[in-house]
Amino acid sequence: MKQLIGSAKKNNAERERTAVLRLEMDYELATLFEAMTEKNEKKKTQVKEKLERIRMELVKLKAL
Asked: What is the DSSP secondary-structure string of 1-64?
């Protein structure tokens, strides 16, 4: 029974983290668009690195 409860809590935490990561990804994509519009190469590079980290975490969570 304890394993079932622990598993349910883990699944809930993973779903919550996935939702947060997707919101972060949306924000970073908007920031990337802004950097592209401004032709700001430094900002574009920084945002792309953040997006890659978010993508890797989503892959680990098997949500992407």
From this structure: -HHHHHHHHHHHHHHHHHHHHHHHHHHHHHHHHHHHHHT-HHHHHHHHHHHHHHHHHHHHTT--
Is residue 4 over pLDDT 70?
no
Report CA-CA distances (Å) from 47 to 17, 25, 29. 20, 10, 8
Looking at the predicted structure, is the pLDDT value of residue 64 above 60?
no
**11 has pLDDT over 90:** no
In the block, which residue shows the tokens 């990337």? Answer: 32
Decide if 47 contacts 34 (C-beta within 8 A): no
